[in-house]
Design a protein that fits this description.
The structure holds two protein chains of two kinds. Chain A is mostly beta strands. Chain A folds into two domains: 3-86, Roll (Ubiquitin-like (UB roll)); 92-220 and 241-412, 7 Propeller (Methylamine Dehydrogenase, Chain H), CATH 2.130.10. Chain A is built from four helices and 34 strands. In chain A, strand 7 (103-108) and strand 8 form a beta hairpin. Classes of the chains: A mainly beta, B alpha+beta. Chains A and B meet through loops of A and loops of B. Chain B: Component of the PeBoW complex, which is required for maturation of 28S and 5.8S ribosomal RNAs and formation of the 60S ribosome. Chain B: This is Ribosome biogenesis protein BOP1. Chain B: WD repeats lie at residues 380-421, 630-660.
């Protein structure tokens, strides 16, 4: 079959073409179709060349048209409706920030980047890659970091460590001084993940000891009463140094293995991923277990997008799986994105785009995905020379990835015009 | 008896009828000796004929008559005692002249040796003693008499009287005849013509005049009954008349097809003998012209290969049958035909038509047996020499590896981060993490000592409590003799994490913990009974459980549940009951050299890896021989491991691969374990001809670690 009839459609009115069926070569690929649309647009009025991407029934076209339709079981007899969007620009590498040791976690805001490092410190960097602050205080590897509050004057931030504590720090921006306000004690294992809720008054931590604990993130002047009086003087000295001891508000137990990732999916809902092959949803207010999603592999990371209301999970195989957290029957995988060749250590949804997410893997590659193309990612960011351990995506369109090669890579990923239009 | 004797003498040749008829009435008067002689009834008994000869003998020598018949020394001894009455009779007969002194001995037929010591030899008729004749002949006299007396040869001594008797010519003659087996009587002719008293010919007159029986006139009832039985059987068809013989001759039909119902034909694979082609027109002596070959055809026939020719002869035309010459190839063709017949295989070879797929045991597909490790996920790099041993913390968060670069490294499992490096100053042969989750302690074999190290990883409370536990030891009052020395670590060592050093006398090659985490066993490279030692950490007390060495111990193992202790020597695994202190079982591995062993968490199954690349699975309830022997590896097995929860076991080998097998043990005692190899994991580079040195499963996940000679540790998930 040489020709197919296709009708082109777009949501972006700038690039709209006539709604009539066109006859296109069956073997044409994205570039051919893009040329065709550009020709059509150029015929109408003044037009600058734009690259387009094409979707058929919500799936990106990544191969010759006829092959794609065969694979998707779309009849070639009827008129095919092809949607086209402006092609997403490739992320532009911006900075490469060198650390002294492996980077375990990263979280960025509009101004600063906070990283947790295996040299037992957390670090604050400017977006330009300038080291601003090194926060030392933990006695073990820092496993996760989080911003709590940002002002022009002072910021609150959290760091979780393998030494079983979470430290709440206050960073005075003007003086560039950091002070440990609270030391959150209570976990009996390495604290692997922390998440701050949207009201910025509470945070949740997940630990290797299979527990989730909810803490207050509001700094106070008084120390919580520690239950155990048998603390040895040496430890007490350390706690005195590192601020006031804080005890958890609530403890959520139910996982049978280590908790690897936590997040707040709603104001009162906590989602936790664990090594026991489950993702559990908790009611933060009552501490009840709401539902369980069961997979068949260890979960390394989980991310939630409020835009599309999907959970994305990275596990100890090469797939990224999308889940619907509201489905009651539990273990239904909506989609799996497969292209990695190693464990997926970290996933992060785009805060601005409902279809896009990035993932980092042990195969040293960070991938940018569009859920409309589950066979192949949009872009591979292959800059790391060792395992990628963490990724982040800021609202400003900055992609961050840190790994075992001690480097933090920053990419600028511009929001395309089509996103604005959509 | 005299009358009888005379009768015998007078009419010896009278008819037997008469003898019989006349002897029977006279029997009562016969002397007892004669009547009792059974030979008497026979008409031709030679004994009867002795009568004459003996009487004759007695006539001529009356004195010898008494002794003669009984004559022991030489003459007719067979004449015997039966004739004695005759002799007596004859002796008493008035026909003989009376002997002047009757010196007859009356002692009777007794052995005369009885009178040897007496001067007399018996008693005569009057009861007087008969004295022995005076004999004073010595040997010389005897010899002289033998030389001088011409009658010496016919002189005999009468034992009854002791007198010498000279035999007469007649007597000597008689003796000679009897010795030859001839009749005593010279005149007796044993070959006289016989007279038939009853002839075989049927004579017209009956022998007797008796009238015929009645039963010979009337029909026999028994015969009638027999006949009626036969008639009935014929009527009923039980007896059939004999078939008339078929006289038509049978010929073998050479050209007929073989009978399909014959014994050979019924055989499924039978091939009938190949038939010869029937002769056609071309074989005729005068074939029709179309069968004759033209010149070109003849040429073509000659050029063809003999095997390819359509005809093996050239059809030829002869004027008459008489003109046909002898066929030159006749013998050759017959010979070929015979070869065909006897070399032809008459039976198709039975080929078992089995699909090779069917011979493979029905095993479930590996896909259905998930989860099991399939791909390499992480590589733990950092060691600089081969990594000999691995162990994992009970929670599965930390991994410890010991290497030939004299260090022990502690790794974070999920990121392959080396958290700690502990230089120990020697090649690390074995490491073992305490299986008790409340104790944070690692035993490390370094040369001659076992180090107990607190890695200070994980929960602070736990490793603090472990230190407290070790410090709370109070030395007992009296010093006990121990095979090893327990030494508390120095301050410098303490800061590195070493808490206790157990110093052995020889190099230690393996250490393993008991499930409760207080006891551990160490294996020493030695060949005495000090090879295996069991230590108690809390009391710092060591003991040697074995009095005698049973061979070179390869590795030891504690049973996870019961108080059993497994000791693997080169070929056997011995199971000891630690409570009863006795040998419970001895497992035959069928391997040449056991390298490693692991026990199923259920405790009823054991796997043994061996250097001859075999893996033996033992079901302890089943037998002391391997339930299954797996030969998947190409080279020596170095290590085997069981998973704690999943039905998985793995083996690492010198060929650089780890083979993961599904090993399902059922609770049902009747169902044997199901062993399915599911995955070959490759990744380790071969270094110094060594591949994988140790394998280990993650305690909670279906992941397997392997350490290799390429100084890496790899995790497969």
């Amino acid at each position: 079959m040489a020709q197919l009839t296709a009708r082109f459609r777009t949501d972006n009115r700038r690039y709209a073409v006539e709604d009539v069926p066109f006859s296109v070569p069956a073997a044409s690929e994205t570039t051919d179709l893009s040329h065709l649309i550009n020709k059509l647009l150029a015929a109408g009025h003044d037009h600058k060349y734009v690259e387009f991407d094409f979707l058929i029934n919500g799936q990106f076209l990544r191969m010759p048209l006829v092959t794609h339709m065969e694979m998707e079981n779309i009849s070639t007899e009827e008129v095919v409706e092809i949607e086209y969007v402006e092609k997403y620009m490739a992320p532009q590498p911006e900075e490469c920030i060198f650390h002294d040791d492996w980077i375990s976690s990263v979280q960025a805001t509009e101004e600063w980047i906070l990283t947790g490092c295996y040299d037992q410190t957390a670090r604050i960097w400017s977006l330009e890659g300038k080291s601003i602050m090194t926060i030392a205080g933990h006695t073990e590897v820092v496993k996760d970091v989080a911003w709590v509050k940002q002002d022009s004057l002072s910021c609150l931030l959290l760091s979780a460590s393998m030494d079983q504590t979470v430290l709440l720090w206050e960073w005075n921006v003007e003086k560039n001084k950091v002070k440990a306000l609270h030391c959150c004690r209570g976990h009996a294992g390495s604290v692997d993940s922390i998440a701050v809720d949207c009201t910025r008054t509470k945070f949740c931590s997940g630990s290797w000891d299979k527990m989730l604990k909810i803490w207050s993130a509001v700094p106070t002047e008084e120390e919580d009463e520690m239950e155990e009086a048998a603390n040895r003087p040496r430890k007490k000295q350390k706690t005195e140094q590192l601020g006031l001891t804080r005890t958890p508000l609530a403890t959520l137990s139910g996982h049978t293995e280590a908790v690897s990732s936590v997040l707040w999916s709603d104001t009162e809902e906590i989602c936790s991923a664990s090594w026991d092959h489950t993702i559990k949803l908790w009611d933060a207010e009552t501490g009840d277990l709401k539902s369980t999603l069961t997979g068949n592999k260890v979960f390394n990371s989980v991310s939630y997008s409020p835009l599309c209301r999907r959970l994305a999970s990275g596990s100890t195989d090469r797939h990224i799986r999308l889940w619907d957290p509201r489905s009651k029957d539990g273990s239904l995988v909506l989609l799996s994105l497969t292209s990695h060749t190693g464990w997926v250590t970290s996933v992060k949804w785009s805060p601005t785009h409902e279809h896009q997410l990035i993932s980092g893997s042990l195969d040293n590659i960070v991938k940018l995905w569009d859920t409309r193309s589950c066979k192949a990612p949009l872009y591979d960011l292959a800059a790391h020379e060792d395992k990628v351990l963490c990724v982040d995506w800021t609202e400003a369109g900055l992609l961050l990835s840190g790994g075992a090669d001690n480097k933090l890579y920053c990419y600028r990923y511009p929001a395309t015009a089509s996103d604005v239009g959509a | 008896s005299i009358a009888h004797l005379s009768l015998c003498q007078t009419s010896p040749r009278s008819g037997p009828e008469r003898v019989q008829s006349e002897t029977s009435p006279s029997t009562p008067s016969l002397p007892v000796g004669l009547a009792s002689d059974p030979s008497w009834s026979h008409p031709r008994c030679p004994d009867e004929l002795f009568g004459d000869s003996l009487s004759l003998l007695l006539l001529s020598e009356p004195c010898a008559g008494a002794a003669g018949p009984a004559g022991e020394p030489e003459p007719p001894s067979e004449a015997g005692s039966c004739h004695q009455p005759l002799v007596k009779g004859s002796g008493a007969s008035p026909a003989f002249p009376p002997s002047p002194p009757d010196i007859r001995n009356t002692v009777g037929n007794i052995p005369m040796e009885w009178y040897q010591d007496f001067p007399h030899i018996g008693y005569n008729l009057e009861g007087k003693k008969i004295y022995k004749p005076i004999r004073n002949k010595d040997e010389l006299d005897m010899f002289l008499e033998k030389m001088e007396n011409p009658d010496y040869w016919r002189t005999v001594q009468d034992k009854m009287t002791g007198a010498d008797i000279k035999l007469t010519d007649e007597q000597v003659d008689l003796v000679h005849r009897l010795q030859k087996g001839q009749f005593g009587d010279v005149h007796f002719n044993p070959y006289e013509p016989a007279v038939d008293f009853f002839t075989h010919e049927v004579m017209i007159h009956p022998v007797t005049n008796r009238p015929a029986d009645k039963r010979s006139f009337i029909p026999s009832l028994i015969e009638k009954e027999k006949v009626s039985k036969l008639v009935h059987a014929i009527k009923m068809g039980w007896i059939k008349p004999r078939k008339p013989k078929d006289d038509t001759p049978t010929y073998y039909d050479l050209w007929a097809h073989e009978d399909p119902n014959s014994i050979l034909g019924r055989h499924k694979m039978h091939v009938p003998a190949p038939k010869m082609k029937l002769p056609g027109h071309e074989e005729s002596y005068n074939p029709p012209p179309e069968y004759l070959l033209s010149e070109e055809e003849k040429l073509a026939w000659e050029q063809q290969e003999p095997a390819e020719r359509k005809l093996n002869f050239v059809p030829q035309q002869y004027r008459c049958l008489r003109a046909v010459p002898a066929y030159s190839r006749f013998i050759h063709e017959r010979f070929e035909r015979c070869l065909d017949l006897y070399l032809c295989p008459r039976q198709r070879k039975m080929r078992v038509n089995v699909d090779p797929e069917d011979l493979i045991p029905k095993l479930p597909k590996p896909r259905d047996l998930q989860p099991f490790p399939t791909t390499q996920a992480l590589v733990y790099r950092g060691h600089t020499s081969l990594v000999r041993c691995l162990s994992i913390s009970p929670s599965g968060q930390w991994l410890v590896s010991g290497s030939d670069d004299c260090t022990v490294r502690f790794w974070e499992v999920c990121t392959a981060r080396c958290m700690k490096t502990l230089p120990v100053g020697g090649v690390v042969k074995s490491v073992a993490w305490n299986p008790n989750p409340t104790i944070c302690l690692v035993a490390i074999c370094v040369e001659q000592s076992v180090l107990l190290v607190n890695p200070c990883l994980g929960d602070k409370l736990l490793y603090g409590a472990t230190d407290q536990l070790l410090e709370s030891y109070v030395a007992p009052e009296e010093e006990r003799v121990q095979p090893v020395q327990w030494v508390t670590a120095t301050m410098e060592e303490h800061s590195k994490g070493v808490r206790l050093v157990v110093q052995h006398s020889k190099a230690v090659k393996q250490v393993t913990w008991h499930g409760k985490g207080d006891y551990f066993a160490s294996v020493v490279s030695d060949n005495s009974n000090m090879q295996v030692l069991i230590h108690q950490t809390s009391k710092r007390w060591s003991q040697n459980p074995f009095r005698k060495s049973k061979g070179l111990v390869q590795c030891v193992l504690f049973h996870p549940i019961r108080p059993y202790f497994f000791v693997a020597t080169q070929r056997y695994v011995r199971v000891y009951n630690l409570l009863k202190q006795e040998l419970t079982k001895k497992l035959m591995t069928n391997c040449k050299w056991v390298s490693s062993m692991a026990i199923h968490p259920g405790g009823d199954n054991i796997i043994c890896g061996s250097y001859d690349s075999k893996l033996a699975w033992f079901d302890l309830d089943l037998s002391t021989r391997p339930y299954q022997l797996l030969r998947h590896h190409k080279k020596a097995l170095r290590s085997v491991a069981f998973h704690k929860h999943y039905p998985l076991f793995a083996s690492g080998s010198d060929d650089g691969t780890v083979i993961v097998c599904h090993g399902m043990v059922y609770n049902d005692l009747l169902q044997n374990p199901l062993l399915v190899p599911v995955k070959v994991l490759k990744g380790h580079a071969m270094t110094l001809d060594l591949g994988v040195l140790d394998v280990l499963f993650h305690p909670t996940q279906p992941w397997v670690f392997s350490s290799g000679a390429d100084s890496t540790v790899r995790l497969y998930t």
